[in-house]
Amino acid sequence: MTGSAMKTINLDDIEALAVGAWILGTGGGGSPYLGLLNLRRLYAEGHRVQLMSPLDLADDDWVAVVSNMGAPLVGQERLADSRSIARAVRMQEEINCITFHAVMSVEIGGGNGMQALMAAAHLGIPVVDADCMGRAFPEAQMTSVAIGDLKPYPCTLYDPRGIEAVVTKVPSWKWMERASRKICVEMGSIASTSKAPRTGREVKDWGIHFTTTKAIAIGRAVEAANRSHQDPIAAILACEGGLRLFTGKIVDVERRTTEGFLRGSAVVEGSDDDRGTRLKLSFQNEWIVAWRDGEAIAMSPDLICVLDSVNGHGIGTETARYGQRVTVIALPAPAVLTSPRGLAFVGPRAFGYDLDFRSLFATAGAQ
Amino acid sequence: MKRIGIDVGGTNTDAVLIADDRVIHSVKSATTADVTSGILAALKALRANPAAAVPVDAVVIGTTHFINAVVQRRHLQRIGAVRIGMPASASLPPFCDWPADLAALVNDEIFMLEGGHDYDGRPFMPLDTDGLKAAARAIKAKGLRAVAIASSFSPLDPSCEITAREIFAEICPDVAVTLSHDLGRIGLLERENAALLNAALHDLAVTTVTAFRKAIAEAGLDAPLFLTQNDGTVMQAETATAFPVMSFASGATNSMRGAAYLSGLDDAMVVDVGGTTSDIGQLRHGFPREANAVVEVGGVRTLFRMPDLLSIGLGGGSHVEQDPVRVGPLSVGYRLTSEALVFGGDRLTATDIAVAAGLIDLGDRARVAHLPRRLIEAALADAHRKLESDIDRMKTEAGDVPLLAVGGGAFLVPERLSGISEIVRVDHGDCANAVGAAIAQVSGEADQVFRDMTRDEAIAAARGIAEARAVQAGADRDALKMVDVEDMPIAYLPGNALRVRVRVAGAIAEPNIGAAA
Questions:
Q1: Helix A33-44, helix A82-96: angle, nearest 10
Q2: Which segments constitute the Hydantoinase/oxoprolinase N-terminal domain (chain B) (predicted)?
Q3: Count of domains in chain B?
Q4: CB–CB of A77 and B491 under 8 A?
């Protein structure tokens, strides 16, 4: 049974998605702005994208899982091109001799929240209202499908210079990350990728559902608050059951692009209620741990979002800069990420921090 | 140190003389269509005061001329746009996020060529020099006079853009070339946008700076000419001719810096009520609070650091509608002195209301004697309501703070506003932006690749170079502060290569006693 409740995504939805996906990106995934520009162009050319519920997938439908892989900083100079992601999906169809029924993003957060729509516009198939992170993460094994131990291969990678690569087989998701990352780095630390194809059954069992709708709702709440001069950050917290962690000004950003990632830290000097203290944010593409006076007060997989204090929009690890006035908030992680097996993939130790995960939220967040 | 500061606004041209850290004299004069005669009139009026008729060390001009040209879509020229970095980014060509009307005015032809760099300094594709030559010939054949060139990762490695400029210099030496790495950081689209705007303003920049020089020469002044830039520092007139976009935010910056100087307050809200608009901002440590988000100029995204300002359509020249009673947003602008009632015109303006209410004495008061009291009160109430709610929007703290009311239309600011502890008005406050120009600081910048150093050592080294350059340009070494720092690792180069850009700024040093004139 498929296609019972297909919804056409309109341009307003896409504008809201760009705002919401950037907030859920927790600093990574790259700004959705360039994806938004691509989609505005595609819509002007007459393309339209349909959104379908994951529950409407047939068990044997094939679903493409797409992402623009690499360091967000590079995406600021090599701008997203909708045709590249569509080509990565076509490569999967060619090597597996399958036809995709729909496409979804590996991560709703950041620019990748828009990549599924860009691919869908070219391919003429719907987008599934789901992803594999419920946020953004830097590495290929940091997904619900890896936590679910689903097959990690094959993965296709595309570079517009005409470089096409396939990682045909690997023994684990971690090996998929290592092998595909090496190719990605050679491509200039950015690549359009289509991950291992998923069946409808797998998406129903292991996808994180309705995250596209969620991102659109967050974006709409922020923009409605901005239009009526209400506090947009309060609107996000109300919408998502989040916590305000810190308010201040960025006084230092150290970043380095290594092994295909953007790593470093940012320091926020407190203002208002936080005057006299500092918050340090460690990042690997995404904000991973927030430290106050040496103590970790928030950590992955809870979402750490650094927002523009004025308009509530996300601030990326590649665009954070000295002098920005920011508010740091935390949002609850999807339940699959906070399970013991989930924490092995996306908990603080997965990023090299010797910390036991402590959620800021009493009941680990709802999916 | 004696400096003349001039602000060329849309309505008025103001001039002040500052000597020995004091405002000696200030004057206000109407802006003219040719710019020159307005400046000349202001300078003549200024120097008619014997105390102000002294030799000066510098003339510093702040102007909204260039940003207004973009906002109002006037005096812009058609340009060629060269993007280097194909085949990446092909679906988002130059002008892709510009408002359609502005792109239609400026975009003549786009050239997308292979070349550029990767994040680690490796070439992305070999530079298409044949394509560049063809582009240069096409631009020459079309008779275009300006071109903007943006290459991927040029802030890291500008060599593709520099080669492109050399090719253009050979084939079409008369075409003005703007390179994106001179204007911006990482972020191809925003950096390219700045370059495109800069190219579109080239002819206007040449004409305007020439008009500035002519006015100063005709006024008999023999002093170097500077223009103020976005961060409240000065640039030489030649630099301003090449980079008019660097002056975009200088009007607002000058007015807020001038207000801080005149009042002695370093932390306050500021409202600058001009002829057409009121700009509301906040002073922190004597400098305007900067906008957080990407700054749009005339609808174009850029990465300029600009004061965080809320601009509302309320000023001394605002039209007053009577049914219902409403002030602004339309304005008579620089035609105030011919169209307002008190000046013999037939348009009811905010200035007429203020004269009728006895807030100021301008023009012929008898011509507004007939205005009903209810209209006067309702119009003032409307202006106050607008100011109050928008000043509150720009406040970032809960308590009451002082408000500096400056600008020619400051009479529209009432004596009490909620959320404001006191309204501060200062002498020469109507010329705060010219004062800000006169006290503009001197900056120095370093931008280079360092190797075999820690990040802290590299930043310290860059800072040392920037400080030396600022001191050479006339800054007081002890007053220098770092205003911007950015570092980018270049993984491809050996020795922990790091590209560091540091900018420092500070007040002008007092001339040494006995130094050569």
A1: 80
A2: 3-172
A3: 2
A4: no
CATH number at residue A266: 2.40.390.10
The domain boundary, picked from B168, B200, B232, lies at: B200
ipTM exceeds 0.85: yes
Q: What is the pLDDT of residues B364-384, one digit of tens each?
A: 999 999 999 999 999 999 999
Closest-CA residue of chain A to B93: A79
Cβ contacts (< 8 Å) between B189 and chain A: which residues?
A: 34, 79
Contact A19, A219 (CB under 8 A): yes
Beta pairing, strands B300-302 & B295-297: antiparallel
In DSSP terms, which residues pair with A282 in a beta bridge? Answer: A265, A289
In a domain, B151, yes or no: yes
The candidate with the shortest Cα–Cα distance to B279, out of B64, B111, B514, B120, is B64
Domain encompassing residue A21: 7-211
- Write the DSSP assignment of A94-163 as a string of letters: HHHT---SEEEES-SSTTHHHHHHHHHHHHT-PEESEESSSS--SSTT-SHHHHTT-----EEEEETTTE
**Residues A143 and A97 occupy one common structural domain:** yes
Q: Using CB atoms, pick whichever of A78, A313, A325 lies closest to residue B152.
A: A78
- A308 & A181 share domain: no
Over residues B444-489, the pLDDT tens digits come to: 888 878 888 898 999 999 999 999 989 887 788 998 988 878 887 7
Strands (DSSP E) found in B115-169 = 146-151
Q: pLDDT at position B96, please?
A: 97
- Quote the pLDDT of residue B436: 94
Average pLDDT value for chain A: 93
Which residue numbers of A have CB closer than 8 Å to B's CBs?
34, 37-38, 41, 71, 73-74, 76-83, 160-162, 188-189, 229, 254, 256-258, 271-272, 308-311, 313, 318-319, 321-326
Q: Assign residue B178 the CATH number of its domain.
A: 3.40.50
Per-residue confidence (pLDDT) for residue B484, from 0 to 100: 78
List the strands of the sheet with B22-30, edge to edge: B22-30, B12-19, B2-8, B58-63, B225-228, B234-236
| CATH code of the domain containing A146 | 3.40.1610.10
Q: Residue B494: pLDDT above 70?
A: no
Q: Which residues in B lie closer than 8 A to residue A262 (C-beta atoms)?
A: none
Give residue-wise pLDDT tens across range A239-252. 999 999 999 988 88
Interface A-B: count of C-beta contacts within 8 A? 97
